[in-house]
Amino acid sequence: MNRDSRLSSILHVLLHMAHSDVPLTSDELAAFLGTHSAFVRRELAGLRELGYVRSEKGHGGGWTVSCDLSRVSLRDIFDALGTPQIFAIGDRNDAPTCLVEQAVNSVLGDALRDAEALLMERLGQVMVADLAAEFTRRMNTIPHCSNRNLHDEP
């Protein structure tokens, strides 16, 4: 099963950007994720259009946070990414003629809608600043830890 990790990835780079005193390039952000810089640019472009981040070209340029993260929820970021599919579970057939399959689809559909609503509610309650505070708390427990060497720590 392929998982859509864009939300996790973008939250990851947002926290690096929030804790950096200087703009971070797409290459630097991609290195944090172990991915290609084109992925970072593509995904952050949507956030830039909504005013969450900004980018500057040229020497000393890069990506920075351009909003108050205490006013941006995980749901906001999820929506900015185009509301990725949450569950890989789905109906075997969207319009079954079999009464058994109709019953299965009905019950599973209700359960999935309820689960999705609960998740969306929770994502709306957690602010990106809450993640940044948790990150800072964890970072402060590791001697000599900085934003740049986080991925080298145990």
TrEMBL record:
<dbReference type="InterPro" id="IPR036390">
    <property type="entry name" value="WH_DNA-bd_sf"/>
</dbReference>
<keyword id="KW-0238">DNA-binding</keyword>
<dbReference type="Pfam" id="PF02082">
    <property type="entry name" value="Rrf2"/>
</dbReference>
<dbReference type="GO" id="GO:0003677">
    <property type="term" value="F:DNA binding"/>
</dbReference>
<dbReference type="GO" id="GO:0005829">
    <property type="term" value="C:cytosol"/>
</dbReference>
<dbReference type="InterPro" id="IPR000944">
    <property type="entry name" value="Tscrpt_reg_Rrf2"/>
</dbReference>
<dbReference type="GO" id="GO:0003700">
    <property type="term" value="F:DNA-binding transcription factor activity"/>
</dbReference>
<dbReference type="InterPro" id="IPR036388">
    <property type="entry name" value="WH-like_DNA-bd_sf"/>
</dbReference>
<protein>
    <submittedName>
        <fullName>DNA-binding transcriptional regulator, IscR family</fullName>
    </submittedName>
</protein>
